[in-house]
């Protein structure tokens, strides 16, 4: 009630002067438009649309020209050890596993919602190798690295020797270097203990001697 009016009846209604709601709305719209408030709202809506349409990261098929070796200097070979079971350190899955060449940890997938993708964004580690295909990728850009400087890493991921190479192992003394730069003689270095395989390790050492 306004000024003693009751039952929801205003003084304007008692006097027979009913306000036109549409006219009042148009008048208010005109005032806002003149003040420039509506234009600001439109611009804010446009900004929201643009922000929602922006991709999380740019996916590339190849590195930009002149940046073929980008991030390769962040690879730490001393932390790489591919002898253990290839399981994602987050999901514990052995499907589509990638190894981070910066910290040595395993992560699943490389898509925009994968564990490796999140690790690249959060940890700033950008170089990964697929444990099956041995292809190396840079994330989150998602392009393949084809540098020959990574061939030593690809070989250690899944080492394979031909029959003739195996036959020459105990006939031709040959020194090798591991990923940490330490010299060793093939056949005289013990294997990592992978889930109670020490008995197998003893047999290999006995045969090598």
UniProtKB/TrEMBL annotation:
One of its GO terms (molecular function) is hydrolase activity. Pfam families: zf-UBP. The keyword Hydrolase applies. Keywords: Hydrolase, Metal-binding, Zinc, Zinc-finger. Residues 67-164 form the UBP-type domain. Residues 40-50 have a biased composition (Acidic residues). Residues 1-62 are annotated as: Disordered. Residues 1-12 have a biased composition (Polar residues). This is Ubiquitin carboxyl-terminal hydrolase 10. It comes from Cryomyces antarcticus. The gene is ubp10_2.
């Amino acid at each position: 009630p306004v000024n003693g009016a009751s039952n929801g009846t205003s003084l304007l209604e008692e006097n027979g002067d009913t306000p036109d709601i549409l006219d009042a709305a148009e008048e208010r719209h005109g005032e806002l438009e003149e003040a420039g408030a509506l234009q600001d709202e439109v611009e804010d809506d446009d900004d929201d649309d643009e922000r929602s349409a922006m991709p999380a990261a740019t996916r590339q098929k190849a590195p930009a020209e002149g940046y073929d070796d980008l991030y390769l200097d962040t690879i730490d070979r001393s932390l790489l050890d591919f002898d253990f079971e290839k399981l994602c350190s987050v999901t514990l899955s052995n499907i589509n596993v990638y190894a981070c060449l910066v910290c040595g940890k395993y992560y699943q997938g490389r898509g925009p919602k994968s564990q490796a993708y999140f690790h690249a964004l959060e940890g700033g580690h950008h170089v990964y190798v697929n444990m099956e295909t041995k292809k190396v990728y840079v994330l989150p850009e998602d392009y393949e690295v084809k540098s020959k400087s990574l061939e030593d890493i690809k070989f250690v991921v899944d080492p394979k020797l031909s029959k003739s190479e195996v036959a020459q192992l105990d006939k031709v003394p040959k020194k090798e270097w591991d990923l940490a730069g330490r010299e060793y003689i093939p056949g005289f270095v013990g294997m990592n203990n992978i889930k109670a395989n020490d008995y197998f390790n003893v047999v290999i050492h006995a045969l090598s001697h």
